[in-house]
Amino acid sequence: MRFVASALVILAACSSPSVGPDGGASDGGLAVELRIMAPPAPAVGVPFPVTIVTADGSPATLPATLEADGASQRVMLYRGRGSASLIASVGGPLLLGARAGGATATLAIAAAERAERVLSGTLGGADLFWDAGADIHLTGATTIAAAAALSIAAGTRVLIDDRVSLTVLGTLRASGSPADPIVISRAGASTVAELVATCSPSILVPYPYAADDHQRFNAKSIADAGGAELVLNQDLGERLAERIFYYESNREALGTMKEKLRQLRGIPAAEAVTRECLGLMMTGR
C-alpha cells in the first residue's frame, strides 16, 4: 500500500462506512465521531480516494491519522472533512483506519486485480474498442488516425502514464449516462450559479489570471460544500483525465454531488446578499 499526494477537494462514498464507537474531543473540546469513505473494490495499482469525515457533519477542524496496511499518513480535517489517495499494491482485503481527537473509525474494503490492455502508437482494429472488461493503459504517445473511430464504453477505466498524450484525429465516441452528466468548466460566478440551479456535478478549473483569483474562490464555494471538484490550472495535465475516468466509473459520487447542490439551491440568495450588505454597513467596512 502506498500513500500518494492528493489534490482532491471533494470525494464521495462508494461503500458503507464503519464508525468507531469511542467518541473523542477535537480542538475546542467538541466531541466527534468519525467515518471513512472509500470505493469498496479499488483496482490494484490505481490511485483511489479515501475521505475522513465527522459522522454527524459537524464542521470540526483538527488533525487526523489515516492508516492502511501498516502505513500511516496525517490528514487535516477542515470543516469536518479531509482526504488522501492510496494505491493498493496487491489484491485482497484491506482494513482502513482513522484516528482524530480520540475518536476512531475503520472500513474494510477489498482491492481487486483487473485485466489490463497496454496500448501505444497509432491504434487500429480491436484496439479502437475500449470497454469496462479491462483497464486501458497508455504507456506511450497514442494516436487515433483521421479515418479511424475510437469507442469508449461506459465504465471503462483509462490509465495514462506521465507525459503521455492521446491524440484523436478521427472520431471519439464515449458512452455515458445522460442522467449523470459531468461538466468541465471555468468558474465564473454565473457559471457556478447555473451549476447550482441545475444541480449539475462539475469539475471546475478556475482561470488562473482572473482578478484577485476570484474564480478559485467561486469554485471553492461549491467544492467545499461537496457539489463540485476543484482542479487547478497547473494540475490539468496530471489530474483532469484521471478525475473524468474516476467519475465515469463511480456514479455514486455524482449522486452525492447532486444532493449537495440541491441543498445549496435551497439557500435564499437575495436574503443572504441583503444580510451580508447590512453587516458590512453596520461594521463600516
What does this structure look like?
The structure is a single chain. With 285 residues, this protein is of the alpha/beta class. It has 3 domains: 2-111, Macroglobulin (MG2) domain (Immunoglobulin-like, Sandwich); 116-174, no CATH class; 183-269, Rossmann fold, CATH 3.40.50.2000. It is built from 5 helices and 21 strands. It has helices at residues 189-198, 214-223, 236-248, 251-265, 269-283, and strands at residues 2-4, 18-19, 24-25, 31-32, 34-37, 48-54, 62-68, 71-77, 81-87, 92-100, 103-111, 116-122, 129-130, 135-144, 149-152, 158-160, 166-168, 171-174, 183-185, 202-204, 229-230. The chain has a 5-stranded antiparallel beta sheet with strand order 2-11-10-7-8, with no helix packed on it. Strands 1-9-6-5 form a 4-stranded antiparallel beta sheet, with no helix packed on it. Strand 10 (92-100) and strand 11 form a beta hairpin. The longest helix has 15 residues, at 251-265.
Q: Quick summary of this structure?
A:
Helices cover 22% and strands 35% of the residues. The protein is an alpha/beta fold and 285 residues long.
Summarize this structure as a short list of keywords or feature phrases.
Immunoglobulin-like, 3 domains, 285 residues, alpha/beta, 4-stranded antiparallel sheet, Rossmann fold, single chain, disordered N terminus, 5 helices, 35% strand
